[in-house]
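$ run holo --ligand "D-xylitol-5-phosphate" --emit tokens
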Amino acid sequence: MVFSRAIKIAPSILSADFADFGREIQAVEAEGADWVHVDVMDGHFVPNLTFGPPAVAAFRKHVKTVMDVHLMIAPVDPYIEAFAEAGADIITAHVEAGPHIHRTLQAIRATGKKAGVALNPGTPAEAVAHVLDLTDLICVMTVNPGFGGQKFIDMTAKIRTLRAMIGDRPVHIEIDGGVTTETAPLVARAGADVLVAGSAVFKGGSVANPAPYGANIRAIRQAADLAANARLA
Ligand code: DX5
Ligand code: ZN
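-- output --
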């Protein structure tokens, strides 16, 4: 994985057909996904339940790009090794999930995986100020985590603050929640480079009819690219 600030689209398989994950992953990758985003929920840190390490290991067999595993679980430290063994490329933990985010990021890096840190909408950018050198990705939640298809919460001021804090460090800014062709330009202009999108990628398509996945991915990417290029111009 070579670091780049180019816009990357990461479909969240939370919006895929749960009876057909293998073919759904193959379909979004064939249609242009850069990364595949896997939402792990524990019914405790967030009010919903999804997958554990065995399911993630099964997804791995189908992911040819980058498997981006978003852990919405507390505690998180006891499960890091299991998700690393399941084949995650990036493991992201929430700063709100425990008192020791510094230790958590060290533990993720110790497995050889990229370490991400996620911030809920109510958590300020400053919460990661002292872990920037332990971090490969900052995930800015633009919904309260737990469900796909929620309304975007504007976090552009936080994204700008984080982009300035990061400086020249090779740290991605990922946006998760409510990303659409309307909201992608706002976050790209503010400095985000990874856009997670569940409902906006999977809407209108299926494994039998995957072309809408490609059209949706291209539309989000185009909207974001225009805004990112305007920011850099
Ligand atoms: C929310 C998850 C998201 C979710 C995004 O808790 O972390 O990744 O799947 O879904 P959309 O794009 O539909 O808001
Ligand atoms: Zn997510």
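-- notes --
Residues 115 and 136 are 5 Å apart (CA to CA).
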